[in-house]
């Protein structure tokens, strides 16, 4: 997590850094800071809290044509001004911002920095103190940085300023994202292109274990062994307007509303010349050559994975297992003979998923990533990729990425089934069904007033909530619960409703809010029985049912869609429920406490 940005050019870096950090705030928002170098005069400003707090603290006349900035998600040391980046070396000469985790920082401290009093609790400070130590021992700055990097174990993306070299900006990366934004008479370094899009649309990738030396008009990339690298810039696929909130009060609401349009974009993106939905041959080959698919994902992406499992097993007749990344990597189950590992990840940067990718590649297995971010780490490192085409998702709570994942998984499932000659895969006109789902999603995003009312009635003051479902509705119930707890801090649980009576029903008291999602005909009466059981124990129940299955007293009717595509539609009222519950409780919807959008630490 954490976001970093660096600038070297002819303009005052202050606004460029602050604007860039605002765009990176989704990566962490515990504290923030910038350093500006004006000739050899250095200004460092840090603040606990948000970029807005930092902005207030930076003097209006602060300036420098070289600068670095950071927004933090705390890993080592509590969120505080002392632990905020940038960190300085003992003399103050070297200044660093860092994203990642240095696993051996404690060993390095004991071995090399015994006599250096550290000012913070961070792993980062060790890096900058080491650079100064090696520089004091006679190494030139570039060599001191290179030697320091070789001592580090773990992940890092760093920017370093040497006060004595006001015309150079140093950077390096290993396992944490970082790229160069190329301008005319300036260059930028950032964790994400979003931070620099206002300045340039030309970007250059940096590979792991490379370091970069930037001046305002030159870019030098080297390996840690000093080999020079030539790399051409690419044009960013998104433009600055894609990442603005526009007239929306929150990114989350904007992203919820974008879902029908994303559905239509996915249909278009996967259509072949004949107008059929199709998947790249290389991807299909991977799927067809495997005897079992292992879906590896975290959070919302894993919930989409469960829906994907149902679809792949039904349409392609390939067994699928869904695993949580952080568990799988350290407790690998008995694998089939020809497994395919499918990583589902909005960001493509999730460290828990990446550690599995690295392990299974070492074991010689094939890999496929479904991601929203082309060029992200899991995209680059997997054998094959499929893209979600959801556009940048900025709110911490994932919404449009989930529905995009479900849609892309359905396309893959049907394409694989057809290639295998599975009858069920020919029975569905998926393009038409996804179109119908897009229209149904429109109806759901238009039900805001009703959902806001329900959120007020059921969730304004409650301390817990249950979401019930069976089969695919259970998968949506898990997602609904995650969304609610993540942004409204209400303790919530998504439950297979038949399982309630095996223990959890003991938690039902007078007024406990219980939401039931009912979209599957074959379980309509079973789940209604479960709803009656909780009603009999005093719960406040609210049913969202699909057209054709509705009963008097249900609070929302979900338009009819294909039975396996119902999560695309039923999830939307749940997303809105979480959104309005968070508003009722005065929570920061887009930046919930303790969280960050892109989870780049294990
Ligand atoms: O970028 P990823 O899809 O790999 O992220 C996985 C989870 O961290 C993410 O889905 C998280 O659960 C969301 N904040 C949920 O809204």
Automatic annotation (TrEMBL):
<dbReference type="InterPro" id="IPR001347">
    <property type="entry name" value="SIS_dom"/>
</dbReference>
<dbReference type="InterPro" id="IPR005855">
    <property type="entry name" value="GFAT"/>
</dbReference>
<comment type="function">
    <text>Catalyzes the first step in hexosamine metabolism, converting fructose-6P into glucosamine-6P using glutamine as a nitrogen source.</text>
</comment>
<dbReference type="InterPro" id="IPR017932">
    <property type="entry name" value="GATase_2_dom"/>
</dbReference>
<keyword id="KW-0315">Glutamine amidotransferase</keyword>
<keyword id="KW-0032">Aminotransferase</keyword>
<feature type="domain" description="Glutamine amidotransferase type-2">
    <location>
        <begin position="2"/>
        <end position="217"/>
    </location>
</feature>
<dbReference type="InterPro" id="IPR046348">
    <property type="entry name" value="SIS_dom_sf"/>
</dbReference>
<dbReference type="Pfam" id="PF01380">
    <property type="entry name" value="SIS"/>
</dbReference>
<comment type="subunit">
    <text>Homodimer.</text>
</comment>
<dbReference type="GO" id="GO:0004360">
    <property type="term" value="F:glutamine-fructose-6-phosphate transaminase (isomerizing) activity"/>
</dbReference>
<feature type="domain" description="SIS">
    <location>
        <begin position="283"/>
        <end position="422"/>
    </location>
</feature>
<protein>
    <recommendedName>
        <fullName>Glutamine--fructose-6-phosphate aminotransferase [isomerizing]</fullName>
        <ecNumber>2.6.1.16</ecNumber>
    </recommendedName>
</protein>
<dbReference type="InterPro" id="IPR047084">
    <property type="entry name" value="GFAT_N"/>
</dbReference>
<feature type="active site" description="For Fru-6P isomerization activity">
    <location>
        <position position="597"/>
    </location>
</feature>
<feature type="domain" description="SIS">
    <location>
        <begin position="454"/>
        <end position="592"/>
    </location>
</feature>
<dbReference type="Pfam" id="PF13522">
    <property type="entry name" value="GATase_6"/>
</dbReference>
<dbReference type="InterPro" id="IPR035490">
    <property type="entry name" value="GlmS/FrlB_SIS"/>
</dbReference>
<dbReference type="InterPro" id="IPR035466">
    <property type="entry name" value="GlmS/AgaS_SIS"/>
</dbReference>
<dbReference type="InterPro" id="IPR029055">
    <property type="entry name" value="Ntn_hydrolases_N"/>
</dbReference>
<keyword id="KW-0677">Repeat</keyword>
<keyword id="KW-0808">Transferase</keyword>
<feature type="active site" description="Nucleophile; for GATase activity">
    <location>
        <position position="2"/>
    </location>
</feature>
<keyword id="KW-0963">Cytoplasm</keyword>
């Amino acid at each position: 997590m954490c976001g970093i940005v660096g600038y070297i050019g002819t303009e005052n870096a202050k606004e460029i850094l602050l604007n860039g950090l605002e765009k990176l705030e989704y990566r962490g928002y515990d504290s923030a800071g910038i350093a500006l170098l004006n000739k050899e005069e250095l200004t460092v400003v840090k603040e606990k809290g948000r970029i807005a707090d930092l902005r207030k603290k930076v003097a209006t006349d602060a300036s420098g044509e070289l600068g670095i900035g950071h927004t933090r998600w705390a890993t080592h040391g509590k969120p505080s001004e002392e632990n905020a980046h940038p960190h300085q070396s003992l003399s103050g000469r070297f200044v660093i911002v860092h994203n990642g985790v240095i696993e051996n920082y404690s060993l390095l401290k004991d071995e090399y920095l015994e006599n250096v009093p550290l000012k913070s609790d961070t792993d980062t400070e060790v890096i900058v103190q080491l650079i100064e130590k090696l520089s004091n021992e006679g190494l030139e700055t570039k060599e001191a940085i290179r030697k320091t990097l070789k001592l580090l174990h773990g992940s890092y993306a760093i920017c370093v300023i040497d006060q004595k070299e006001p015309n150079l900006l140093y950077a390096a990366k290993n396992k944490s994202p970082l790229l160069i934004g190329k301008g005319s008479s300036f260059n930028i370094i950032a964790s994400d292109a979003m931070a620099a899009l206002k300045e340039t649309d030309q970007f250059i990738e940096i590979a792991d274990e490379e370091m970069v030396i930037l001046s305002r008009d030159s870019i030098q990339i080297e390996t840690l062994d000093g080999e020079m690298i030539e790399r051409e810039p690419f044009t960013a696929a998104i433009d600055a307007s894609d990442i603005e909130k526009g007239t929306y009060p929150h990114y989350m609401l904007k992203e919820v509303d974008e879902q029908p349009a994303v559905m239509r974009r996915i249909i278009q993106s996967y259509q072949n010349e004949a107008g059929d939905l199709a998947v790249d041959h290389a991807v299909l080959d991977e799927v067809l050559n495997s005897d079992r698919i292992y879906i590896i994902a975290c959070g919302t992406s894993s919930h989409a994975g469960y829906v994907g499992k149902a679809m792949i097993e039904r349409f392609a007749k390939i067994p699928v297992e869904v695993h949580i990344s952080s568990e799988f990597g350290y407790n690998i189950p008995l694998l089939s003979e020809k497994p395919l590992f499918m990583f589902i990840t909005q960001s493509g940067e999730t460290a828990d998923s990446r550690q599995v990718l690295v392990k299974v590649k070492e074991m010689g297995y094939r890999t496929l990533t479904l991601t929203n971010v082309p060029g992200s780490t899991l995209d680059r490192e997997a054998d094959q990729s499929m893209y979600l085409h959801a556009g940048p998702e900025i709110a911490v709570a994932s919404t449009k990425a989930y529905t995009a994942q479900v849609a892309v998984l359905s396309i893959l499932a049907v394409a694989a089934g057809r290639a295998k000659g599975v009858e069920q895969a020919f029975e569905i006109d998926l393009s038409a069904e996804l179109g119908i789902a897009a229209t149904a999603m429109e109806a759901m995003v238009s039900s805001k007033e009703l959902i806001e009312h329900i959120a007020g009635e059921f969730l304004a003051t409650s301390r817990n909530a249950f979401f019930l479902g069976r089969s695919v509705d259970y998968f949506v119930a898990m997602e609904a619960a995650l969304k609610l707890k993540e942004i409204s801090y209400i303790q919530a649980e998504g439950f297979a409703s038949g399982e309630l009576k095996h223990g959890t029903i003991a938690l039902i008291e007078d007024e406990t809010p219980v939401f039931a999602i009912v979209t599957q005909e074959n379980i309509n009466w079973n789940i209604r029985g479960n709803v009656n059981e909780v009603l009999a124990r005093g719960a406040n129940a609210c049913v969202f049912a699909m057209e054709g299955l509705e009963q008097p007293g249900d609070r929302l009717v979900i338009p009819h869609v294909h039975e396996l595509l119902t999560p695309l539609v039923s999830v939307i009222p749940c997303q809105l429920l979480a959104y309005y519950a968070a508003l009722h409780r005065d929570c920061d919807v887009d930046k919930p406490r303790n969280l960050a959008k892109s989870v780049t630490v294990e």
